[in-house]
User: Fold this.
Amino acid sequence: MYIKPIFSCPIMSHDCNHDLDFLTEKCYLAKKYDKGRECSNKGGWQSNEIYEHDDWFPDLKYDLKLLATEFTKTMGFDINTNLKLQNMWININNYKDYNTSHTHPNVFLSGVFYVKVPSEDGKIVFRHPALSSIDRDWAHVPITTQNTTNSASYYFLPVENRVFMFPSWLEHEVTPHFLHEDRISISFNFSVV
Assistant:
């Protein structure tokens, strides 16, 4: 018997080597001067948008652009396509803060870079694009081995200095963490111009 998986939801993971003390300081400085906004975040603080031409995080922006270009190439898209860092924002979550399930419409790639991770709580959870159909038709069938064929969701643990990048259409959420200590991440979007 031959089984061919015909669709894929690629998630890129890469460990970086950025100065996390410097980035943490910059994130808290931003929080001091930016009232923030509420989008998918429940509790915590989320900065307003930071753009490609802004002075914030030049080394991180450079690395993210290289990774996005390589990721795009490995997925089989035209590597001559010009990727633009559409926007980025800082997330500072504390005890029981989380992000509800969402996507990032009208962009190509999305991602998150972890600056400060005090615990393994606050997982990033990805939902299968056909989640409602899977729940309807497969939820009652016992699973012997959990794998990418039968999973309705998949999660990754946050790790300091690690970036995850994924298609912007992939629904995701961030679970609460349960320490009275800040978890800091920088989220971002790339568009095609």
